[in-house]
Every structure is written in C-alpha cells, then in structure tokens.
Amino acid sequence: RGAPVPGLGPGRLLVAREGAVPPGSVFHRSVVLLLECSPGGGARGVVLTAPDDDTRGPAAAAAARRRLAALWGRLSSPEQQLRVGTGGPVARGGARQLPGAVTVLHNRSGLQGSHEVSNGIYCARNLESLLETENDEGSEDTTTRASVLFGYAGWASRQLDGEIRAGGWRVLDAAADHVFQHPGATLWATLTAQLDDGHRRPPPQRQQAQMPFPPQQ
C-alpha cells in the first residue's frame, strides 16, 4: 500500500518496468489502460498488450464479432478493424460464452452506453447497449476501430499507488494511437523506449526571464 499518487486516474497508461513482473504473467512487459481510479481507492483497467484471445475458443470471439459487426454495419462504417483479446485475469468468464466482464474500446463518438476515457478513446461495458445506438454526425467518415477485451485488471484500495511508488509501473497519458494503431506486441517496447529516451535527455537550459516592463525605482 502507499500514499495516493498525484494525477492517477482514468485515461492514464501504466507501463510495466522491465523485470517488475516475471515472464508468463499477463503483466510481464505490459501496458494497462486505466478505466476507473479514485484517489486512495481501488483501480480497474484493461491490458492492451496481451495476445489475441484465441484460447477462449471460437464461440466467444465469433459472438463478439457478430454483435459488433451488426453495430458497425448499422453505422455504415467504410472500414472496420476489430480485435478480440484478453483485458486481464479478473472475470474472464467461460470459453464458450461471452463473459460478464467485457470491455469494448472504440473510437466512435456519440454512442449511447459509451463514455470517453481519454481523447478519442471511448469505452462501453455492454455490447447490447451499443446495438441500440445512433451514429454521431461528426463520425460518419471515421474509420471504425474497436477492441473487445475479456476480463480486466483490478487493484484494491491504494494497492496500485504502492506498486507505482515501488517502481513497478511508469505512468503517462493515453492517446488513441496507443490503443488502436500500435500492435499489442510492440506497444510496450515502443513506450518504454520513449520513456527511457526522455529520461536520458539533458534538461532544457533555462533562459533568463525577460521583464515586460523595466523595474520601478
């Protein structure tokens, strides 16, 4: 446990430090998108770097794809990019049915039953509610991208704060490209390299402030 970490909340990415989690864990070299987080309280997020969820059996993946295809077809999307994967070890459900904990990350604004997690990243926790929605006028030409994630990652009160203060995670703001453009297999390496490069750069030299008016005598 630890004191609350300032600035921690929904829309932030957790990037695991090298060696913090042993190989074989879903959190090894992982990137997690925080969906819920309260100061000093618990937290919930989804892993963006887990392998595609082929082990769940074709039934669950096919059911999710059919339901989303019905939604995107109704929205007349010119293109669709759907991914079915693992969001974390908690409440993944059975292999032959859609589990209770389903998270749909997508880039379509104006969908009933969704809320914006970060700029351009929307989250829905109910596939059925998305099928009843209408398209937003501003997103007609948007390329539809979505990830259906089974299960989630969860932390008890102040557990995540303690892990961050112990050096297990690095934190940065999430962008839509992190979720929809980068393959999960390369996202951790890409963000880790960016963070390491930022720490290696020398701090910018401070320039002497210029007074807008001469000091009064």
From TrEMBL:
InterPro entries: AlgH-like (IPR003774). SUPFAM superfamilies: VC0467-like (SSF143456). Pfam families: DUF179. Gene3D superfamilies: VC0467-like. Residues 196-217 are annotated as: Disordered. One of its GO terms (cellular component) is cytosol. PANTHER family: UNCHARACTERIZED PROTEIN YQGE, UPF0301 PROTEIN YQGE. This is Uncharacterized protein.
